[in-house]
Specification:
Elements lengths: L9 H14 L5 E6 L14 E7 L8 E8 L1 H14 L6 H8 L5 H9 L1
Antiparallel strand pairs: 1-2, 2-3
Helix pairs in contact: 1-2
């Protein structure tokens, strides 16, 4: 029987990471790391968790890493939510086409369709 606490199961954590990954358009990958170092028993290590986002700034660049959050599991999930909320949305093909002038803006298309 699972306790009703603020703790998450591994499956719940994986689900949250998959959802966050989908919300940013599957850009790169998230890594959730738990400090399990033997040094913890000696008082060394941070003893918490951290989340990083690994991505390629351009298709031909080396992979880069951005720190998302650190602390408890709850701290990391809150930081992940903030990161995803502020993540720049990639332009759609239609938006790129409108920017380049290849695809007419919506207003121009509606005027032509209404004639």
């Amino acid at each position: 029987m699972m306790r009703k606490t603020s703790e998450m199961t591994l499956e719940q954590l994986q689900k949250r990471l998959r959802e966050a990954h989908a919300r940013i358009g599957f850009e790169g990958r998230f890594a959730f790391t738990i400090d399990q170092s033997a040094a913890l028993s000696a008082g060394n290590g941070h003893g918490g968790c951290y989340v990083t986002h690994w991505f390629r700034p351009t298709p031909y660049a080396f992979e880069d890493c951005k720190a998302v959050g650190a602390g408890s599991v709850a701290d990391c999930i809150a930081a992940l939510d903030r990161y995803v909320a502020s993540f720049p949305k990639a332009m759609t093909n239609e938006e790129v086409g409108m920017t380049l002038g290849v695809v007419p803006r919506h207003e121009e298309r509606y005027e032509v369709a209404a004639e």
